[in-house]
Design a protein that fits this description.
The complex is a heterodimer of chains A (552) and B (853). By secondary structure, chain A is α+β, with helices and mostly antiparallel strands. Chain A contains 11 helices and 17 strands. By secondary structure, chain B is α+β, with helices and mostly antiparallel strands. In chain B, the strands form 9 sheets. In chain B, strands 6, 7, 8, 9, 10, 11, 14, 16, 19 and 20 form a 10-stranded antiparallel sheet that branches. In chain B, strands 1, 2, 3, 4, 5, 15, 17, 18 and 21 form a 9-stranded antiparallel sheet that branches. In chain B, strand 17 and strand 18 form a beta hairpin. The radius of gyration of chain B is 27 Å and the shape is globular. Chains A and B meet through strand 16 of A and loops of B. Chain B: One of its GO terms (molecular function) is glucan 1,3-alpha-glucosidase activity. Chain B: Keywords: Glycosidase, Hydrolase, Signal.
Chain lengths: 552, 853
């Protein structure tokens, strides 16, 4: 990361200064860096570096502070704001606050800061320099390899992104179609209900009379709805072939609705418009079964079909049991598939009892409960329950029931859309290099706990020897410093602490060949810190550009 | 540390506790602590109203010896005889003792608190008749008048009554008696008492004592810490008395008379003419009632009285009630505040002279998690260029709350960690609490058990209670052999992983017993011949005494100890520092830290501080900065925080706040020479370090109730900013004809005025007295010991007469050689005629900066 680059650059500077240090021994007052040497000329009075004052040169380093900026005492502790330059030949030169001169503690590796304190300082610069060079070399290797890996990750992410994008547009199309349908239904329903309400208010006395008319209206509305349903190509006409999708209308009960029979139902016409259809409706309404529910809108099928490796229901259960071995990508679409299984299992019952189903959608685990006279649709969305409950008494006919069913599905549909949209909209880094972490989990076992980081999802902690899992936070945001945003991840709103905040976790990312959690700690109560290595944060090594390109 | 986390720490062992503790999470649960009404003896005693005393002095029993007068008293209601002893003590003090003439068995008298038998001076009978006796208390027409019927004592000086005892007839002495199952005996609370689920068997029956004191001409009384209340004590009419009973109070409330962690039964009275003190020498549970004939009156009412001439003399009445022991009172007659401090110090000793580094900045947290954490915090101070002398470890550093041990996985190499600190010339404090885990594999426990040194329960078995480690025993520190053994545990070969830069913190020494009555030890627990009831308030005093002794012994008597305690009693000043316990990150808690420490300083305990930042809850950055600024000018300067609060090392709040906190700490370090000199004085003379203004300006009535500003020594006036969002403060600068200098700007201000000063977030209003010289060190380094050879800078603030005086005290900063070998430099500095003179022996390099406008 940024830091590492600095080190690499420092290495270059270092070798330069080392050479200078050995060849040219320049005389200068104690604590003055070479770069400022020219300001300290023994032959002239000294002017404070801020220009504030000029003093005789013998007052430089006389252990009394004359300059406001501390520049007259580079080699003593006299000025509160002064600094001392350690040459540190063999290692990095550095400045220390002048309060550390002769304080009995060796701060410069060359020991030059303790010239009058009695402290005996060893010169450790060469040793430090050697160690640093080794460390930098190692780091350079890691950076190099990590950066190669990162390029691959970026390639993969590109492909993945494209796939998801196309899936999203598919889903978007089907959603549009679905929404239109729902909207049409809603309009029909509302137009049907609106007069009902108004009539009730205005014509209380004439209620009975109107009731019949209203029933007719209602019938019409239903009919209109059926018309829309049947009108598959939405050309404003129901034709024979469209009618033939409803074999249950077969008048002779031989199981086939022939062209002729269908035409008969349509009053002999090949196709009818909605006004004409009204007249024909009475012929069919006894037998008609709505197509809206339960068949699933095709969009769902298309989405989960692509997930060949979807996690099975059993996996999901195991996951809930907190089996530490199960890596459980909480992939939206996997859960979708799981829900789909549910639906299939229940299919048989469905036709007998007209059970309402919610179609499983991403992040949603559906549970269908049939209680003699009630439809309950429970959708679990990220641990929050959405409950749709309808009793039979409020759902007077099969069709109305099915309309509810459709609305229910419509209510859920956006989730599947949103989930994919969410994944696509995740900030996986400037080149999506972090995309590979999505739906993965990484663990670290310590003395007491097993920590698990599922990037872009959640962090948790579980006692090693039994006990329940504790959430240490859900994905919050990238929160590195402005110039290095992708170096820190923040997970928030974990389980609450007694009298304290909700648990949260800061994940610090460093360059590594492996993707792994390397350490965890709890520096403050309920605020966790994780160190995580990944090639995705490896920066391009500046001095091995050519090699990188060679290998590409 | 607070009670509640205990429950969390003990986990499954104490689910019941956890539930209970959750209930008290918001603030103090008053229901856990007794009111006077719920304390049988207090209720009994308080039911007795002022009136004719049933006690009569039997003048013919009077015996006069060189050192004392004895006299019998009889209670005409029950014919029980008491023995009254009167002493005239050196230094203008009178001691009054009352005990049963022939108690069924001895009654407890407090040992080990007085530094010696107070030297007496001869009393003489001035006159005597059938109504009473007049005794001379030396010259100046000071007399002690004993009136026979009803019995009362008056101390007079010339025509003026200084104070009277039993003038309201509230002397009551419940004599020891065998239990008879009469109706009287079966009154509730006499032979048994139940509070919540705890029953106190009272094998000795009722034993309480009470006595009243009247202070004519007095409107201001102070002292009797520890209470979270203002400096000036309030009237207790219509409410509970101030209570003295060392308790671990979880999330204590402010501005009420509830008992807290420590007790010093010393009350000071002050008016423009005279300052006096009453030392009620009793270590049992004690309640103090205060009433005043002017307390209820408004300023306007008082003026009206004055104008109409209808005013009676103001008077404050005090009544002490204790559960057991004897009546033993030292009356310190002043007359000046400094005289009272000297008198009290002659009885209980002076402030211990701490190592210099203990006066610097302390960084604490419950808890620094492991060695790596300590290393990072140590380094953090260097990275942010903030000085720090001590890093502290709370209970989590131990192996399962077994004190004297280290958690093997978090602190596997304590010697290495301590060496890291030594390398930076820093030090460490580790906690050692007096509750000892009952665990046969734990050396400390098994030795205590085999040597039979634990406190016993009423049935004679080792007393056990719940505390941090779970089931715990409590060493009987009242026994000298227990203390000697405890002290020996601090030897380097006993306390593994300890080094000479490791010091000690005694917490939970009230003692705290999570499942005990009022979260403390059962009163019927047994210490040898005595019940815990008799000496409860002494327990913490002894723990700190034994610990300090241990630190001295481990260095073979060479090094000064540093021990912080939460519980304390009269005399605790001799063993180290005290802090105000588990406060909270609230502005009011910041404000109350001043009067709490002032009251402690008035009764000898100068080394006082509050947790900077507040222990419970999380401070706003403004509050944290203000607390650092205030704490930098209080004697004990330590930041501390509860485990459940976010981290708050000084550099965690952005560069601006880091700079503000650094500046506050730098100001502390710059003033260390002055602090050190103040402590040397406190050690030598018993004069307080933090002083209410009236201590130096006893005639200035406007200062009598002031507790938002104070003096450090005589020469610095501190008015910390304790208001949120403050734009300015009004400081009162005392002294007609005197001048004060703003220490930051050197601006001169006249005395005897209220001065409004605009403030910003960086302001710490401090003023130096004109006519003083204050030594500072302006080269501030990473710890105080790095600064030991640095030059001094004298800040000379001239008086209107263009003179100034000051002093300089220097020694090695950490050994007893200042005492044993007189190795120190103590110089008086004088500035006059534009010349600074001192008999400086040129050992030190002086930098001179003269500020005179």
């Amino acid at each position: 990361m940024q830091h590492n680059v600095n080190w690499l650059q420092a290495l270059l500077v270092l070798s330069l200064s080392v050479t200078l240090g050995w060849t040219v021994e320049v005389q200068r007052p104690r604590g003055v860096p070479l770069t400022k040497r020219q300001f300290y000329d023994e032959a002239k009075p000294f002017t404070c570096l801020d220009g504030s004052r000029t003093i005789p040169f013998d007052r430089v380093n006389d252990d009394y502070c004359d300059c406001k900026d501390g520049s007259d005492e580079p080699g003593t502790a006299a000025c509160p704001n002064g600094s001392f330059h350690c040459t540190n030949a063999g290692y990095r030169p550095t400045f220390i606050p002048s309060s550390r001169i002769n304080d009995g503690i060796c701060d410069c590796c060359d020991g030059t800061d303790e010239y009058n304190s009695g402290a005996s300082c060893q010169n450790t610069c060469k040793e430090l320099g050697r160690k640093e060079r080794e460390a930098l070399q190692k780091l350079a290797e890691i950076t190099k390899e990590g950066f190669l890996l990162k390029q691959q990750l970026i390639e993969e992410a590109k492909k993945g992104q494209q796939e998801k994008q196309s899936r999203l547009s598919e889903l978007q199309d089907s959603r549009k179609g679905h929404e239109d349908k729902v909207e049409a239904l809603r309009t029909v329903k509302e137009t049907a209900e609106q007069p009902e309400k108004e009539a009730k208010e205005r014509h209380l006395k004439a209620w009975e009379e109107h009731k019949a008319a209203l029933r007719l209206e209602k019938e019409k509305a239903k009919m209109a709805e059926v018309f829309l349903e049947l009108d598959d190509n939405a050309d404003g006409f129901v034709d024979v072939s469209e009618l033939q999708t409803h074999q249950e209308l077969d008048p002779d009960g031989d199981g086939t609705l022939t062209d002729t029979e269908a035409q008969g139902l349509l009053g002999g016409a090949h196709k009818v418009d909605s006004t004409e259809f009204m007249n024909m409706w009475s012929n069919m309404k006894e037998k008609y079964v709505s197509e809206v529910c339960p068949p699933t809108p095709s969009s769902y099928d298309s989405s989960h079909d692509e997930q060949k490796d979807s996690t099975s229901d059993k996996d999901q259960e195991r996951d809930l049991d907190k089996d530490p071995d199960s890596v459980y990508p909480e992939d939206d679409l996997d859960e979708d598939a799981a829900g789909e299984d549910d639906e299939d299992d229940d299919d048989d019952d469905d036709h007998q009892v007209s059970l309402l189903f919610c179609i499983a959608t991403p992040f949603i685990q559906p549970h269908h409960i049939f209680l003699s006279q009630q439809y309950i649709c429970v959708c679990v969305y990220q641990r929050q329950y959405k409950i749709f409950m309808y009793t039979l008494s409020t759902v007077s006919s099969v069709c109305e029931r099915e309309r509810w069913c459709l609305l229910c599905n419509a209510a859920l549909l956006p989730f599947s859309f949103r989930a994919l949209e969410k994944e696509i909209s995740f900030d996986f880094g400037p080149s999506s290099e972090f995309a590979y972490l999505y739906s993965q989990c990484y663990e670290l076992t310590t003395n007491e706990y097993i920590y698990r980081l599922c990037p872009f999802n959640r962090v948790s902690q579980k006692p090693k020897y039994g006990g329940s899992e504790t959430s240490l936070g859900s994905w919050g945001s990238w929160s590195g410093p402005e110039d290095n945003k992708y170096s820190v991840m923040k997970y928030e709103h974990g389980m609450g602490c007694w009298q304290g905040p909700n648990r949260s976790t800061t994940v610090k990312l460093t360059c590594g060949k492996e993707t792994a959690v390397v350490s965890t700690s709890e520096p403050s109560r309920c605020e966790y810190l994780m160190e995580f290595t990944t090639p995705a944060v490896c920066l391009e090594p500046p001095n091995i550009d050519t090699q990188v390109h060679d290998e590409f | 540390c607070p009670l509640v986390a205990a429950a969390a720490a003990m986990g499954a062992l104490s689910l019941g506790w956890f539930a209970l503790c959750l209930g008290v999470a918001v603030a103090v649960d008053r229901g856990n602590f007794k009111t006077c009404e719920q304390s049988a003896f207090c209720k009994r005693q308080r039911a007795m109203k002022a009136g004719q005393s049933p006690y009569r002095a039997l003048l013919d029993t009077l015996e006069l010896s060189d050192s004392r007068v004895t006299l019998q008293l009889i209670n005409d209601n029950n014919k029980v005889h008491l023995l009254l002893e009167l002493y005239r003590l050196q230094g203008n003090m009178t001691r009054v003792k009352i005990n049963e003439l022939k108690p069924l068995k001895p009654r407890f008298e407090v040992p080990d608190v007085l530094i010696a038998d107070p030297p007496t001076e001869p009393l003489s009978v001035v006159s005597r008749d059938e109504n009473g006796v007049v005794l001379s208390l030396g010259d100046e027409a000071r007399r002690l008048i004993v009136s026979a019927q009803p019995f009362r004592l008056d101390i007079v000086e010339g025509p003026q009554v200084l104070l009277s005892l039993n003038s309201r007839g509230l002397l009551a002495f419940e004599h020891l008696r065998p239990r008879k199952d009469t109706e009287d005996d079966n009154q509730p609370g006499l032979w048994e008492e139940t509070f919540k689920s705890h029953t106190d068997s009272k094998p000795n029956g009722p034993t309480s004592i009470s006595l009243d004191f009247s202070l004519p001409g007095v409107e201001h009384v102070y002292g009797i810490p520890e209470h979270a209340d203002n400096l000036k004590l309030k009237s207790t009419d219509g409410g509970d008395p101030y209570r003295l009973y060392n308790l671990d109070v979880f999330q204590y409330e402010l501005y009420n008379p509830m008992a807290l962690y420590g007790a010093v039964p010393v009350l000071l009275s002050h008016n423009a003419q005279r300052t006096m003190g009453i030392f009620w020498f009793n270590a049992a549970e004690t309640w103090v009632d205060i009433s005043s004939n002017t307390a209820g009156k408004t300023v306007f009412g008082k003026m009206l009285d004055y104008v109409q001439g209808a005013s009676e003399t103001p008077q404050t009445d005090i009544r002490w009630i204790s559960e057991s022991g004897i009546i033993d009172v030292f009356i310190m007659l002043g007359p000046k505040p400094a005289d009272v401090f000297t008198q009290y110090a002659s009885l209980t000793g002076t402030q211990s002279f701490p190592p210099l580094s203990a006066l610097a900045y302390h960084q604490c947290r419950w808890n620094y998690n492991d060695q790596e954490d300590v290393r990072a915090v140590n380094q953090g101070f260097d990275e942010h260029d903030i000085p720090c002398d001590f890093i502290w470890l709370d209970i989590e550093h131990t192996d399962g709350k077994r004190y004297f041990t280290w958690d093997p996985s978090k602190f596997p190499k304590p010697l290495e960690m301590l060496q890291d600190l030594t390398d930076k010339r820093r030090k460490m404090v580790a906690i050692v609490d007096p509750h000892i885990k009952v665990d046969s594999g734990y050396k400390i426990h098994s030795e205590l058990r085999s040597k039979n040194l634990y406190v016993k329960n009423k049935d004679g078995a080792d007393y056990e209670g719940w505390c941090w480690p779970g089931n715990a025993g409590y060493p009987d520190f009242i026994r000298p052999d227990t203390r000697a053994w405890w002290a020996s545990m601090f030897a380097y070969d006993q306390y593994e992983g300890s080094t000479e830069n490791l010091y000690t913190w005694n917490d939970m020494n009230e003692p705290s017993v999570f499942n005990g009555p009022e979260v403390t030890m059962h009163k019927d627990a047994v210490h040898g011949a005595w019940e815990h009831r008799d000496l409860h308030n002494l327990y913490g005093f002894y723990v700190q005494m034994a610990t300090a002794e241990g630190l001295i012994q481990r260095s073979e008597g060479k090094e000064r100890p540093f021990v912080l305690t939460r519980a304390f009693f009269a005399g605790s000043q001799r063993y180290g520092a005290v802090w105000t316990g588990d406060n909270a990150a609230e502005w009011d808690h910041l404000k109350i830290s001043i009067p709490m420490c002032l009251n402690l300083n008035l009764v000898g305990i100068s080394f006082c501080g509050a947790d900077v930042g507040g222990f419970f809850k999380s401070p706003s950055t403004e509050l944290l900065v203000r607390w650092y600024q205030a704490g930098a000018y209080q004697p004990f300067f330590r930041a501390h925080a509860h485990m459940d609060t976010p981290r708050r090392e000084p550099w965690l709040f952005g560069p601006e706040n880091t700079a503000l906190i650094r500046e506050a700490i730098l100001q502390r370090y710059a003033l260390l020479p002055y602090w050190y000199q103040l402590f040397y004085h406190a050690y030598l003379t018993g004069q307080p370090i933090m002083r209410p203004l009236w201590v130096e300006y006893p005639g200035d009535a406007s200062t009598f109730a002031m507790d938002d500003q104070y003096l450090l020594g005589r020469d610095l006036l501190v008015h910390p900013v304790t208001e949120e969002g403050a734009r300015g403060i009004t400081a009162y600068l005392p002294g007609q004809g005197e001048v004060w200098y703003d220490v930051h700007t050197f601006q001169k201000h006249n005395g005897a005025q209220n001065l409004y000063i605009p403030v910003t977030i960086s302001s710490i209003p401090v003023f130096q007295h004109g006519g003083s010289i204050i030594p500072k060190k302006l080269r501030i380094r990473r710890s105080s010991s790095c600064m030991e050879n640095d030059p001094y800078t004298f800040i000379v603030a001239l008086s209107p007469q263009r003179t100034a005086e000051g002093e300089l005290y220097i020694d090695d900063g950490h050994t007893f050689s200042y005492r044993t070998e007189k190795k120190f430099i103590h110089r008086r500095l004088t500035f006059a005629n534009n010349t600074l003179t001192s008999r400086s022996d040129a050992l030190f390099h002086f930098t001179l900066e003269i500020s005179s406008e």
